[in-house]
UniProtKB/TrEMBL annotation:
Top-rank taxon: Bacteria
Domain Protein SirB1 N-terminal: 101-258
Native organism: Parapedobacter koreensis
Family: Belongs to the UPF0162 family.
Classification via InterPro entries: SirB1_N
Protein's UniProt name: Transglutaminase-like superfamily protein
Length: 284
């Protein structure tokens, strides 16, 4: 579409006919993020409250459709990069986020841990080192005072505030560990998300390949399989593989989204609850 046609469409955004507006809105949504800059320019030059509101809603819809497409592509490509999946979720709330800044923050944590790492370290020693870097040097901790705050589920915000929920802290922990070739993976435990330290050459699906578990929400506390079994018994659940073995990156991102559904639902935000639900449907 050329500039003239685009301008003609945008001029119709303040049309009082609802049917005309819906048609124009849908056409602009299909054009994607490329039209956002032009829409923002029109918003800045307008004094019409209705037009500004329509443009704000339109920009959000365009950005949201872009997030859905990115999520679908991430899933179809194998969802190998957990960090990228979390960045896409972050873009839902913060569409103008600086992705490279998030990557650089993770790399900085990894670099500081790498500088202190010794090849001959045992698994427990490596975890103690990671704990020292993540919780002491960088000051990460669980957000116990505002546990259900949606900000706890957005990686950009967690990296900035150093506060998060169990799954986001576990994600940062495992992403840094895996960048250092330390085999630490997420475990989809009900009511709490934890990590598993696996044997270097054991398949992550093997229960015999797990050396121990880590609680990223409690400053990297180490515990054993019997503790996990006891926790499941308290919930009247049997220790199925889904609860005790490492899960996929897709499972992790879907759980992050379910946490957001709970957070926004409790806050009474039905629009965001429904939109996050659509993101979940895209990955399901």
């Amino acid at each position: 579409m050329n500039e003239k046609e685009l301008n003609s469409l945008i001029k119709l955004l303040d049309d009082p006919d609802a049917e005309v507006f819906r048609h124009v809105e849908q056409k602009l949504i299909t054009l994607g993020p490329e039209v956002i800059t032009r829409l923002e320019s029109v918003w800045e030059q307008s004094f019409d409250v209705m037009l500004q509101t329509r443009i704000e809603n339109l920009i959000h819809k365009i950005q949201f459709e872009d997030v859905l497409q990115e999520l679908e592509l991430w899933k179809l490509s194998g969802s190998f990069d957990l960090l990228q999946g979390l960045i896409i979720v972050n873009k839902y709330q913060y569409p103008d986020m600086d992705e490279q800044k998030v990557v650089n923050q993770i790399e900085a944590i990894k670099r500081d841990a790498w500088l202190e790492m010794i090849y001959s370290m045992s698994a427990v020693e490596k975890v103690r080192l990671l704990n020292n870097i993540i919780y002491n040097a960088y000051g990460f901790s669980g957000n116990t005072s505002n546990y259900h705050d949606p900000q706890n589920s957005y990686i950009g915000q967690v990296l900035e505030s150093r506060r998060g929920n169990p799954i986001l802290l576990a994600c940062i922990y495992s992403i840094v560990a895996q960048k250092l070739d330390i085999p630490i993976y997420g475990v989809n435990l009900p009511k709490h998300f934890i990590l598993a330290y696996t044997e270097d050459h054991a398949p992550v699906e093997s229960r015999h390949g797990i050396l121990f578990y880590i609680n990223a929400f409690n400053r990297g506390q180490i515990f054993g399989r019997h503790d996990v079994i006891a926790f499941l018994k308290q919930l009247n659940l049997s220790p199925s593989d889904n609860f005790v073995l490492p899960c996929s990156n897709l499972d992790i991102v879907m759980r992050v989204l379910r946490n957001l559904v709970t957070s926004y639902s409790q806050a009474g935000n039905t629009v965001k609850t429904e939109e996050i639900g659509r993101m979940l449907d895209t990955l399901a």
